[in-house]
Design goal:
Layout: H1 5-73, E1 87-90, E2 96-103, E3 108-109, H2 122-135, H3 139-147, H4 163-169, E4 173-174, E5 184-185, H5 191-194, H6 203-212, H7 230-233, E6 236-237, E7 242-251, E8 254-265, E9 268-277
Parallel strand pairs: 3-4, 5-6
Antiparallel strand pairs: 1-2, 2-7, 7-8, 8-9
Length: about 280
């Protein structure tokens, strides 16, 4: 039986309305599904970051144990120790973390430029002057170091500090207020960092000797043919108390970095600063 024209018009209208409604609903449904997926991805990312941070903190605990064990056994630190080696750990489904520990007493700490009474340490000032001359650093930056209020918290905040000075100086200097010592570790410092103590001495012999056996005391420098004045010897040490740790961690594609500043006193360890960036 043929459909009357008026019924065909009604059915056509219904079909148009249905299509119009579907045209409106489909994007809404799709947007809702995508929103749920986005939320699920965000939740998963947060869970992955939590896992990455947990792994980084576990690795930090392992590094702390290495430093404590070493500090309880010996008062001499060198770059062949277990804590100085890269450490890593892995977990399920590709989770992993890797960390390095940097001995901060490989560098001259500018917070030791002046003594507790505010007077400039003449021996250390001489080291800085010779370092500045050798590296061709800006004189204004040296004046900024000697006159800036203590504690110094960042090299780039020193008056007169410029990009060239920053690039050259960071191989030898740091400004870390949390580090208690102003001594330079002769077992870990670079040759170019040691030389300004007394450029007339042959420090290459010191580096060769410490590779065979680390120095147990500063006086042993004489065995390498390096003799120093008492005020120069007082700038040096054979053990370290301040360490910077950097750990990079990954869990299911989410990555982050944990940094920490550790201060050691014999068999005791204090975490002065810790930061997670993930």
């Amino acid at each position: 039986m043929p459909i009357p024209p008026e019924r065909r018009g009604e059915r056509g209208m219904v079909l148009l309305v249905t299509l119009a409604v579907l045209a409106l609903l489909i994007p809404l449904v799709y947007a809702g599904v995508e929103a749920q997926r986005f939320h699920a991805r965000q939740v998963q990312r947060e869970l992955d970051l939590i896992a990455a941070r947990r792994n980084a903190e576990s690795l930090l605990a392992r590094i702390v144990r290495l430093l404590i064990e070493d500090g309880a056994q010996t008062r001499s630190d060198h770059l062949g120790e277990p804590w100085a080696m890269p450490v890593a750990m892995s977990g399920p489904d590709g989770e992993e973390a890797a960390g390095v520990t940097n001995d901060l007493e490989r560098f001259w700490n500018l917070n030791g430029v002046r003594l507790a009474d505010g007077q400039i340490d003449d021996a250390l000032r001489g080291v800085l002057v010779r370092l500045w001359q050798r590296e061709g650093l800006a004189a204004d930056a040296l004046e900024g170091v000697l006159k800036a209020p203590l504690p110094l918290r960042a090299l780039e905040r020193i008056p007169g500090w410029d990009p060239t000075t920053d690039r050259k100086a960071r191989a030898h200097l740091l400004a870390e207020a949390e580090c208690p010592s102003r001594r330079l570790n002769i077992n870990t410092a670079a040759l170019a960092t040691l030389e300004p103590v007394n450029p007339e001495r042959d420090w290459t012999a010191v580096v060769r000797m410490r590779e065979r056996e680390p120095f147990g005391q500063v006086a042993d420098l004489s065995k390498a043919g390096v003799t120093l004045a008492p005020q120069e010897s007082q700038l040096l040490g054979v053990n370290s108390a301040c360490f910077a740790v950097t750990i990079r961690s990954r869990a299911h594609g989410a990555t982050g970095a944990l940094t920490a500043l550790l201060v050691r006193d014999g068999g005791r360890m204090t975490i002065r600063k810790v930061r997670w960036n993930g």
